[in-house]
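COMPLEX REQUEST
Ligand: adenosine-5'-triphosphate
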Amino acid sequence: MKIKRLDILGFKSFHDKVSLDFQQGITGIVGPNGCGKSNVVDAIRWVMGEQSAKNLRGKQMEDIIFGGSECRKPLGLAEVSLVFSTDDGRVPAKYLNYSEIQVTRRLYRDGESEYLLNKSQCRLLDIAELFMDTGVGARAYSIIEQGKIGMILHSKPEERRVLIEEAAGVTKFKARKQVALKKIDVTRQNLLRISDILSEIK
Ligand code: ATP
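STATUS: Structure written out below.
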């Protein structure tokens, strides 16, 4: 999957809608201090499902909504869409027929939020599954911010293993294993209850 376009509206310093097209090769974002370069990276991280306001350099999630400036009033909604091309075929099978995948996240000031996949409402889990094992995603290694290399070098072996597993494509299977184990556990509890009921009837 390759990033094709990023649309930002009402996110942090972006009051008006801004669309960034990512062409072939390397894209660099340059500008004076405080102009919003890091906010672009925050927008990418946020739309891919980041849940921690701290990781987006805020105190609470509402801080990501445009909070007003000298000449503009605060907005009530932040919306970011990230569009991926599917040309390389490295997408989950169910998206192979789409020429692009659009992931959208919205947050209203009252706290209500929405996730959309190709403009249809979805769950955060659907977004997380889409990015699993791709190296993209809110927590994956595709975003290397200041201090991250040092953090990886100084991390515990178990923490480093998470990154290696993501690169090796194991994350999806581990997540599915957890879901399967939970189902087995619920089934065991149900069987236990049934055998209790049966012994009461006898
Ligand atoms: P530097 O080069 O110094 O690292 P930068 O270009 O990466 O700077 P950012 O950190 O992306 O800049 O943007 C900082 C700007 O974003 C500040 O002017 C800040 O006031 C503005 N900003 C952050 N959150 C909001 C918000 N919710 N509403 C309005 N403006 C915001």
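REMARKS: The pocket of adenosine-5'-triphosphate is lined by residues 12-13, 31, 33-39, 63, 65-67 (CB under 6 Å). Helices lie at 37-47, 124-131, 148-154, 157-168, 171-201.
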